[in-house]
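FYI - complex with S-adenosylmethionine, inputs then prediction.
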Amino acid sequence: MRSKEFRNLVADLVRAGEACEPRCPHARECGGCAYQDRAYAGQVAAKREALERLFTAAGLSEIGYDATTFAVVASPDPYTYRTRMDYVATKGRFGLRARGKFNYIIELSTCHLIPPAAFAAAHAVWVRANELGLPDYNIRSHEGFLRYVVVRRSPDDQLLIAIVTAEGPYAEAAEELARTALAQAGVVGFHWLLNNTRTDLSFGSPLQHWGAATLPMRVGATHLMIGPNTFFQNNVHLLDHLLAAVGEAVGPVASVADLYGGVGTIGMHLAPQVGQVISVEEVAESAALAAQHSVAQGVTNLQAINQDVLSYLRTQAPAAWPVAVVDPPRIGLGPEVCAELLRIAPQRLVYVSCNPITLVEDLRILGAHYRLRHLTGYDMFPHTPHVEVLAVLE
Ligand SMILES: C[S@@+](CC[C@H](N)C(=O)[O-])C[C@H]1O[C@@H](n2cnc3c(N)ncnc32)[C@H](O)[C@@H]1O
């Protein structure tokens, strides 16, 4: 099954579920939420059914998949769950893309994917930008300045705001936007990021910041920090559950490789229960934050390595560590990383996947030497077709 086919299958199954009144007035047209008009329990059941069909069609039962025990864990709250929202500023509108229409932005007066205060802070920056006469960015003609207002939000509702802009003579206005942002409830810092390319990305190189440079993210007993560009797990309500399941799957081992380690969210969680964590991450800023987190909290058994996973694996001897956790981006591990894992052959692989299609491709390769011991879905992205899966192989 291809990604598009899987998305369509999820959509068809969700649409066949029980209807409900969406909480958001924009839900029927906004691309941010596709399924708010379907009861949440039905959304979770539909994702379970879609995954079950995917895994069965892929023949995963040959490596130990058991449809009778497979479940998808619901988000404790399907609203206000996100740690990041990227609102587009273009052609006098501030909001998200219309469903199925890349170039049309729905003007949002509210958004239920983040807490009201987080939306209000981002919106206040947009309102002030208009008062200052700051031109927004035209995504067709590529003229203008303000491209995105990004809000990063911590589990305890502190906020980091960023504007992503093209180049322009607006340093004073940016300063004024920073003042506005920092006056909003919960905002600890404001970043000005430059994206001077034609590529429509809500990331950019840091130009200047006001207030705190990073946002404190407390996850369970762990204290982490993220910058405006750094990856962080998406769902504040379900993250503890996912981390607990990863911890249980890893167990009290001598060492664990945390591959695609990011800022150390999983590695720091595992550090108290294992002898050593080796966290491997290719983005320098994230790897540096993982190292800072361990130093700041007196964690002496986490080593943060700034390297591409494949090149790191090529330096490792067979049985280098008894357990590896892999949490790759949507493209998955791919054949080369899988081949290296098969060569090193840790006793257990704990795979956190944000893309079931690439997970299945990787599991078919890893199935040459591994059996599936556990498979659970996590609905980290309510109201969207996305779903996370945790797979444990031995
Ligand atoms: C899905 S995120 C997981 C991050 C982390 N495990 C967490 O829980 O926050 C994937 C991470 O892999 C990193 N990454 C992507 N490709 C990589 C590669 N080839 N080698 C190392 N890290 C990579 C990304 O920068 C990102 O931080």
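The two ends are 25 Å apart (CA to CA). The chain has ten helices and 17 strands.
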